[in-house]
Amino acid sequence: MTTKKLIAGNWKMHGTLVSVRQLAEAVIDGVEKDSSLLDRCDFLVCPTFIHIPAVRAVIDHNRGALRVGGQDCSTHDTGAFTGDIAAPMLKDVGCSAVILGHSERRQHHGESDQIVAAKAGQAHQAGLMTIICVGETEGQRTAGQEKYIVKQQLDGSIPAGAMAANMVIAYEPVWAIGTGKTATPADVAAMHAFIRQILVEKMADGAGVRILYGGSVKPENAAELLAIPDVDGALIGGASLKADQYLAIAKAVQ
């Protein structure tokens, strides 16, 4: 398994053409000023669809060690699907990865595990790495159902043919996303160990799949979270919209 942590920024529906260029430039500049970061981390940012080419252009111009990804893709590769973005289109504009099954997609767009799996299959066929998100609600955790829910999501969302080389899992407890709440280190350790166990049972190379933690990750808690066994990086929301905070999280990797 790679020893590098994946520091992934989910920019969600934020930014303007000017601001995303500035943010990408600031991140690249920060990484270049501390070259040791590249020995410890892989960097990925996921802007809105319409901003991907602008961020890709900044990366190409600066020859920066930053990768760009999408926040979703279609279950189809082409056709009369108004508003959809196909995985091959993301690949064509320079993406190397795509976030799938984020709780905001599951909640606000009614995406099931089966839809996530179909999208992931399309992404893998297009040559994209998938970041498949799983996580329980506060009510489900209170009821003691968190492991049942996460296993159900893993079983239903991982497509046939998934490998450590083309898939990452992100554990994001829904109650911690954008709320300022963070799961305790003990809770994170227990869930990541459980996810690892499921992956090893499901996949020949399950021990090599990177598992990210997401849910109010910030500079203040990054070192503690990223030191937990089987936490192989972070999927960062709000803190990734500020270059200094995103870079501070990366610098917390030992």
From TrEMBL:
Q: Where in the cell is it found?
A: Cytoplasm
Which pathway does the protein contribute to? Answer: Carbohydrate biosynthesis; gluconeogenesis; Carbohydrate degradation; glycolysis; D-glyceraldehyde 3-phosphate from glycerone phosphate: step 1/1
Top-level taxonomic group: Bacteria
Where are the membrane-spanning stretches? none
**What's one GO BP annotation on this UniProt entry?**
glycerol catabolic process
One MF term from GO for this chain? triose-phosphate isomerase activity
**Catalytic class of the enzyme:** isomerase
A GO-annotated cellular component: cytosol
SUPFAM superfamilies, per the entry: Triosephosphate isomerase (TIM) (SSF51351)
Q: Which residues form the active site?
A: 102, 172
The UniProt catalytic activity note for this protein reads: D-glyceraldehyde 3-phosphate = dihydroxyacetone phosphate
Q: Which residues bind substrate?
A: 10-12, 178, 216, 237-238
- Provide the alphabetized UniProt keywords: Cytoplasm, Gluconeogenesis, Glycolysis, Isomerase
- Signal peptide from the UniProt entry: none
Free-text function comment from the UniProt entry: Involved in the gluconeogenesis. Catalyzes stereospecifically the conversion of dihydroxyacetone phosphate (DHAP) to D-glyceraldehyde-3-phosphate (G3P).
Known NCBIfam families for this protein?
tim
Family matches, as HAMAP family: TIM_B
Subunit comment: Homodimer.
State what protein this is by name: Triosephosphate isomerase
- Species assigned in the record: Micavibrio aeruginosavorus EPB
